Design the sequence.
């Protein structure tokens, strides 16, 4: 049996800000990555596009199908695809789900039978998706939905003969977790996280993700938010100082993210939670400055805090610091800036000037 694949590439990519299909992914762009991945499993690959020729410069072994009804979302792409393909059915997927497995598509096609649609049964977050096997039998129904502007896939599945496959059944065919397979690159944050997955950097769903993030020298989030890391001898109380700095920095119009590492947990602006990479990236994307405590020697842009009678000598080499804050007259051996802990306004001035140099 010949298996056909249609990759939906006709979206506007509004939240991404650029054509998703052409985003760098691995050693190529996203659409070429998917074609290479699925080609061994599908005898024919089609691209659903806004305008024919959009991706012809890539010289991929595909057939482009332009939208019959432009600007009507993915349902229009499915309508156009089913109307134009030679096969009686096909597996449809979005270009922004790079971790979807070919064997998932084959499993849905094999279960389609005499139904109009075969899709995944599972969490609600997956159900409102174009990803499914479709038969030409549902062309008329899709056309009516487009004319009536009923563009949700829940509505389409209610109107069609739809067969559902469980997550457990998909897992037998394609062991990659469903959460990963259906991961959608809707925003730049999603894209940066996908690069981490692609590179094998998938921290656990815990605050360890924050710790590993600051050790990741490749910085695949690609954010430009400056990070200032406060370090000190164990037992040194740093939080009160930063809490004094925060309102002064915010008064200057800066949005500041404050992270504290405590054993294997992280305090995020004084709220304990189990952060994900998406939460971290979302918080960073709108911040002007990130202040961290206790993230260790690998943390960037370190400022060491010294206190009289407790830690009067830096644990770090001065060349690895950008400044020292002390509550006593500390004399640096180098030209390292030294600031009085009791005069936070001077510290704010230094941080502001430091930001200006980044």
Sequence:
């Amino acid at each position: 049996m010949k298996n056909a694949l249609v990759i939906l590439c006709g979206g506007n990519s509004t939240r991404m800000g650029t054509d998703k299909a052409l985003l760098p992914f691995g050693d190529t762009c996203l659409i070429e990555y998917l074609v290479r991945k699925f080609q061994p499993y599908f005898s024919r690959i089609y691209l659903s596009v806004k305008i024919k020729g959009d991706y012809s410069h890539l010289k991929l072994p595909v057939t482009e199908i332009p939208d019959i009804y432009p600007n009507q979302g993915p349902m229009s792409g499915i309508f156009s695809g089913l109307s134009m393909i030679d096969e009686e059915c096909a597996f449809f997927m979005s270009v922004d789900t790079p971790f979807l497995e070919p064997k998932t598509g084959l499993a849905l096609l094999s279960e389609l039978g005499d139904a109009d649609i075969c899709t995944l049964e599972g969490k609600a977050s997956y159900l409102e998706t174009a990803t499914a096997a479709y038969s030409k039998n549902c062309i008329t129904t899709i056309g009516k939905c487009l004319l009536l502007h009923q563009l949700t896939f829940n509505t389409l599945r209610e109107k069609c003969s739809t067969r559902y496959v469980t997550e457990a059944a998909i897992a037998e065919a394609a062991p990659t977790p469903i959460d990963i397979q259906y991961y959608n690159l809707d925003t730049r944050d999603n894209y940066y996280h996908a690069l981490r997955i692609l590179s094998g950097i998938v921290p656990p769903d815990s605050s360890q993700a924050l710790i590993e993030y600051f050790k990741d020298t490749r910085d695949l989030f690609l954010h430009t938010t400056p990070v200032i890391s406060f370090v000190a001898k164990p037992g040194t109380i740093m939080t009160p100082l930063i809490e004094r700095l925060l309102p002064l920095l915010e008064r200057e119009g800066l949005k500041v993210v404050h992270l504290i590492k405590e054993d294997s947990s992280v305090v995020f602006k004084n709220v304990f939670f189990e952060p994900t990479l998406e939460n971290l990236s979302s918080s960073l994307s709108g911040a002007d400055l990130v202040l961290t405590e206790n993230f260790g020697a690998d943390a960037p842009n370190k400022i060491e805090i010294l206190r009289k009678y407790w830690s009067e000598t830096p644990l770090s080499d001065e060349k690895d610091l950008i400044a020292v804050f002390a509550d006593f007259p500390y004399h640096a051996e180098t030209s390292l800036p030294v600031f009085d802990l009791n005069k936070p306004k001077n510290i704010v001035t230094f941080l502001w000037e430091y930001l200006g140099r980044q």
